[in-house]
């Protein structure tokens, strides 16, 4: 069997000028990592959001294989009984060619729906020089763990290689990050790298290269976040919390979960399961002067240009790759367990060289504190990047400067009229995907948010009135260039 997507993207140049610690690369190649399911996402999501579940489970499923630049060979020995098809071979896969004596910058992008992938090149170390657009110290590694939505640049050196040499790039799914079984998963997708110069005609012989011995399961964590260049973030003026939790059953026979009165699994942020009213975007609500704090989405608000710290806690889920739109954030502290309002203000933060990125993996039972400068007015989605968890409600938003957003309703404002008209054509009560009238019961009623209001270093995140007045003078200039960058719940 061969997957249908066989369109590797054409390489485009990536400049190394922002990575002064490493010599410029002489070649570059984007490597897209994806995952492939033998059922469509519609089928899986609609099943997960029904009382039948998907294969009797409400846990995000594993794919059947990965994809590298849109292609993979599925090894039929993993197939479930009764599934038939033609077994393709590695020679049917596209391959990539690089010159000898080159520094090849490989930019890995995990554009998949669920799995964490280990990427590696047989018998060649990769020098990591970038994580989510942030330059890092060039560290040689055997494998890079690439979570969903993560991007890394790893430099491959082809010095000493001769024309015709070949070896494998491997993307290997880390099965330890799944919360459920994976009986028909083919976890490894190899792609042939071949050394060639222009004009050479080479036989497509298979490489005899050997994989690294480093394990590809376990250690479901991100890159060491201290391996970055120094960049001190400013002092925070607000601390808020996103508590991630679960309600409902894990399987159709999970009696404890079903006894809660919810027939399928939902994820929550601050006790709210997101419901996407597809024709009523939050951005439009704010422009109309409405209060978006309707209990349908967990919101953190920055009223002014200010530095915001956010504590994210994964109270009882599997590892979640949390992602924030609009602004990258510094990862300033993380650990196991949970933190309460009495300890947040006294946490030991890395203010020396925290990694600046826009996605982080948060393992089960751990917390992380991120910091960012809220200077881009808009409604910026904050969500788990596992698409099934998004559909199950693990989705919130950071609302920056709603007062600035509201001014867009003035004549000549920037909200496209066509967009407003498009939304007006739909039913404002439609909830997407497939969510209608469910019994709602909250199991977790954590006191963090309310207590934070009374904490000396923190303030409310839900008040409709501005509560933060500290605006650095030098940051006012940024307002002039600020534009609306994001609208959660755009019309679909
Ligand atoms: Cu998740």
3D structure, described in words:
- With 492 residues, the chain is mainly beta.
- It has two domains: 27-195, Immunoglobulin-like, CATH 2.60.40; 238-481, Cupredoxins -  blue copper proteins (Immunoglobulin-like, Sandwich).
- It has nine helices and 24 strands.
- It has helices spanning 41-48, 255-258, 282-287, 341-344, 387-391, 402-406, 417-424, 448-454, 477-481, and strands at residues 27-36, 65-68, 96-98, 103-110, 117-121, 126-131, 134-141, 143-146, 151-157, 166-173, 188-195, 238-247, 266-269, 276-277, 298-302, 306-314, 320-324, 329-336, 355-357, 359-362, 366-374, 378-384, 395-400, 431-432.
- It has a six-stranded mixed beta sheet with strand order 2-1-4-9-6-7, with no helix packed on it.
- Residues 320, 384, 386, 389, 394 line the site of copper (II) ion (CU).
- Residues 29-173, 298-402 form the Plastocyanin-like domain.
- Pfam families: Cu-oxidase (PF00394), Cu-oxidase_2 (PF07731).
- GO terms for molecular function: copper ion binding; oxidoreductase activity.
- Belongs to the multicopper oxidase family.
Keywords for this structure?
single chain, 492 residues, six-stranded mixed sheet, 24 strands, disordered N terminus, disordered C terminus, binds copper (II) ion
């Amino acid at each position: 069997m061969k997957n249908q997507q066989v369109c590797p993207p054409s390489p485009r140049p990536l400049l190394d000028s922002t990575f002064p610690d490493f010599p410029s690369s002489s070649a570059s190649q984007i490597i897209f990592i994806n995952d492939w399911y033998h059922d469509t996402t519609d089928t899986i999501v609609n099943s997960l959001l029904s009382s039948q579940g998907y294969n009797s489970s409400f846990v995000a499923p594993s794919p059947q294989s990965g994809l590298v630049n849109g292609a993979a060979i599925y090894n039929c020995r993993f197939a479930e009984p009764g599934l038939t098809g033609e077994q393709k071979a590695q020679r049917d896969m596209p391959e990539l060619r690089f010159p000898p004596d080159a520094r090849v910058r490989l930019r890995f992008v995990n554009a998949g729906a669920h799995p964490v992938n280990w990427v590696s090149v047989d018998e060649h170390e990769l020098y990591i020089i970038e994580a989510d657009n942030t330059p890092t110290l060039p560290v040689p590694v055997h494998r890079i763990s690439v979570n969903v939505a993560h991007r890394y640049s790893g430099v491959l050196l082809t010095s000493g290689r001769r024309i015709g040499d070949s070896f494998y790039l491997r993307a290997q799914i880390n099965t330890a990050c799944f919360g459920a079984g994976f009986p028909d998963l083919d976890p490894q997708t190899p792609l042939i790298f071949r050394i060639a110069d222009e004009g050479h005609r080479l036989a497509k012989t298979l490489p005899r290269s050997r994989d690294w011995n480093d394990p590809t399961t376990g250690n479901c964590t991100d890159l060491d976040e201290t391996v970055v260049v120094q960049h001190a973030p400013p002092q925070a003026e607000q601390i808020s919390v996103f508590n991630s939790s679960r309600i409902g059953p894990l399987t159709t026979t999970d009696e404890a979960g079903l006894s809660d009165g919810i027939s399928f699994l939902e994820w929550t942020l601050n006790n709210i399961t997101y419901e996407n009213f597809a024709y009523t975007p939050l951005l439009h609500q704010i422009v109309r002067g409405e209060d978006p704090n309707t209990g349908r989405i967990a919101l953190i608000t920055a009223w002014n240009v200010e530095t915001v710290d956010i504590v994210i806690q994964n109270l009882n889920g599997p590892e979640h790759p949390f992602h924030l739109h609009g602004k990258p954030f510094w990862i300033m502290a993380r650990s196991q367990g949970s933190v309460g309002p009495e300890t947040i203000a006294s946490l030991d933060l890395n203010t020396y060289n925290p990694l600046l990125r826009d996605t982080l993996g948060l393992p089960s039972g751990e917390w992380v504190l991120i910091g960012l400068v809220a200077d881009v007015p808009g409604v910026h989605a904050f969500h788990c990047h596992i698409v099934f968890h998004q559909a199950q409600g693990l989705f919130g938003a950071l609302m920056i400067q709603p007062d600035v957003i509201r001014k867009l309703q003035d004549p000549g404002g920037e909200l496209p009229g066509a967009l407003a008209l498009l939304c007006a054509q739909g039913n404002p009560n439609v909830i997407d995907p497939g969510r209608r009238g469910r019994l709602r019961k909250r199991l977790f009623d954590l006191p963090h948010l309310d207590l934070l209001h009374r904490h000396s270093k923190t303030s409310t995140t839900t008040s409709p009135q501005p509560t933060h007045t500290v605006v650095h003078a030098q940051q006012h200039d940024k307002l002039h260039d600020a534009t609306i960058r994001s609208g959660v719940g755009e019309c679909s």
